[in-house]
Every structure is written in structure tokens, then in C-alpha cells.
Design a protein that fits this description.
The strands form two sheets. The protein has a six-stranded mixed β-sheet with strand order 4-5-6-7-9-8, with no helix packed on it. The chain has a five-stranded mixed β-sheet with strand order 3-2-1-10-11, with no helix packed on it. The chain contains nine helices and eleven strands. It is globular. It is of the alpha/beta class. The longest helix has 16 residues. The chain starts with a strand and ends with a helix. The site of one fe (ii) ion has 7 residues, from loops.
């Protein structure tokens, strides 16, 4: 079974390199002929209240031939915690706006004997009613998936590279982590895939592959220090998962894509200005 994870497409209604790159990656993914594609969030450029970005992103992603499931990132629905980016906390309205375009923000897809599971990392530690609904669903997962091997997808990684960075800006919130770990311990998880860090890394935890997937839009070569994200690749790409007897994740990228830093992306600078964010 072949699964492709795409993430952090950061598509803007203003076009530019995030859109042209996303279109290149859509064609590249189609040529890979996956059985299923999972988008792990930050679908849109920066502002969860900009509906025009969702409209364009949905159009571009509709070019993917395989079945597609889409999870939200912090730039799609806001984020939990005291100091959310751009003063955009996760709210019920923002989640509803995401769901209206991309469907429910959690799923189990059974493909070729594998359970492909995804859920919304921005709900953890949020206190929203949607968080409790998601917990009820998470705690029913052992019953839903049974003994099948599982791959788990989230926008933010479940665990930080270094424990001191386990916080709502970078990972599943620390107050929720033990409860989530108790669910995961009941599943036969063979791989975890996340986005958010704009950085490819492949590590291992208790026998499961732990994949940090690269963005298709921009890299953080200098702005994010190695002690936060660990060793890996600052390149744009997607991740192919060959799921058979073993899990084999691979970094994949087409030739000739533009690989800008965040602040080199014109629509990102415009979106920052519109949000009143100065970096
Ligand atoms: Fe991102
Ligand atoms: Fe993110």
C-alpha cells in the first residue's frame, strides 16, 4: 500500500510560489499513483479567517487523483495556548470554517488492511467542546481499528524533539499528552507523521517510525534552531510511505521547485501585514 503525506502547502489566494509549488506537487503525487493522500495541515498561508485562501487551496488540492483526507494546522483553525500566532486562538467558528471546505478534522480510513488515522492537534489543551468530542472519538479508536497496523497523522508532532519544547506552539499540548499516550498504547502504531516544522526528519520511537514531513511552500533554514527540530533536511518535498510488512518512509521531491525562506514569499509578507503581525 502506498500513502503520500503532503503538508504545509500554505496556499494563498494571491498566488505566488506556494500555489505554483502546490500545483507541481499535485502532478508529482499523481505520477506516484498512491492509494491515499493525507494533508497534515497549514493548508492555507497564515490567516485562519481568510476564506479566499481556503477556496483556492481546495481548488488546487482537487487535482489530486487519489482519495484525499485533510487535517487542519494552526494557520487553518488557530492554535491553543496563551500566545497563539497572530492572536488567532483556535475557536469553534474557525474549526467550522475549515470543516465546511475540507470535511471533518479527524478520520479512520482502512486501506489494504492498514488503519490510516488522523486527528486535529490544535484541539488539545483548547478546552473547546470539539476537544471533548475528539477525546470521545480517540478513546473509541481501539475498538474502531481492532488489531490492524496503524499510521497516525497530526499537524503538530505528538512529541517534541527535546522534552523542554513540549508546548502548544510546537506539539500536542503537554496537559493532553499523557491521555493521548494512553490511547496510543492500545494501538499497533507503526508510524507517526506530522507537519508544522517545515523540516524532514525520520526517527524511531518504541519501534514506530516518526516522520516530520517537509513543507511544499517554504523552508526555515536559519530561523528555527536545530535544538528545536533536531537534525534533518531543510528542503521542500512530500513523504511517501510504503506500507507492507514494514513501514518505509521516503522523502520525495520533483526537480526545479522554488525553495524560498518564509519572508521571501510575497503573499506571506502581505498576509502578515494584513494580520498586523510583525516578526
Ligand atoms: Fe506550516
Ligand atoms: Fe503549523
Amino acid at each position: 500500500m502506498k500513502l503520500v503525506q503532503i503538508t504545509d502547502t500554505h496556499i494563498s489566494h494571491l498566488g505566488g510560489s506556494p500555489s505554483s509549488n502546490a500545483q507541481r506537487f499535485v502532478a508529482f503525487i499523481n505520477a506516484m499513483e498512491p492509494d491515499i493522500v493525507v494533508h497534515t495541515g497549514d493548508v492555507t498561508i497564515l490567516d485562519p479567517d481568510e476564506d479566499r485562501d481556503r477556496v483556492v487551496a481546495k481548488e488546487i488540492l482537487a487535482g489530486i487523483s487519489a482519495p484525499l483526507r485533510v487535517l487542519p494546522g494552526n494557520h487553518d483553525v488557530g492554535e491553543p495556548g496563551d500566545d497563539p500566532f497572530g492572536d488567532r486562538p483556535v475557536t469553534s467558528d474557525r474549526i467550522a470554517a475549515f470543516r465546511a471546505h475540507f470535511g471533518i478534522d479527524r478520520f479512520v480510513e482502512v486501506v489494504d488492511g492498514w488503519a490510516v488515522v488522523g486527528f486535529n492537534s490544535e484541539l488539545f489543551d483548547s478546552g473547546l467542546p470539539e476537544e471533548e468530542e475528539q477525546w470521545a472519538w480517540l478513546e473509541s479508536l481501539p475498538e474502531q481499528v481492532g488489531p490492524r497496523p496503524v499510521v497516525v497523522f497530526t499537524h503538530k508532532p505528538v512529541w517534541a524533539y527535546a522534552p523542554e519544547y513540549q508546548n502548544t506552539h510546537l506539539t500536542v499540548g503537554p496537559d493532553s499528552l499523557p491521555r493521548l499516550e494512553a490511547v496510543l498504547a492500545q494501538l499497533d502504531v507503526r508510524a507517526f507523521g506530522s507537519g508544522h516544522l517545515h523540516h524532514y526528519a525520520l526517527t524511531e520511537r518504541d519501534g514506530a517510525a516518526v516522520v516530520s514531513a517537509p513543507s511544499t511552500a517554504f523552508v526555515h533554514r536559519g530561523a528555527v534552531s536545530a535544538d528545536i527540530v533536531g537534525p534533518g533536511l531543510a528542503q521542500l518535498g512530500v513523504v511517501e510511505y510504503d506500507l507492507g510488512e514494514r513501514v518505509l518512509p521516503s522523502f520525495r521531491a520533483p526537480l526545479d521547485i522554488v525553495e524560498p525562506e518564509f519572508l521571501e514569499v510575497e503573499p506571506a509578507r502581505i498576509a502578515l501585514d494584513a494580520m498586523g503581525v510583525t516578526l
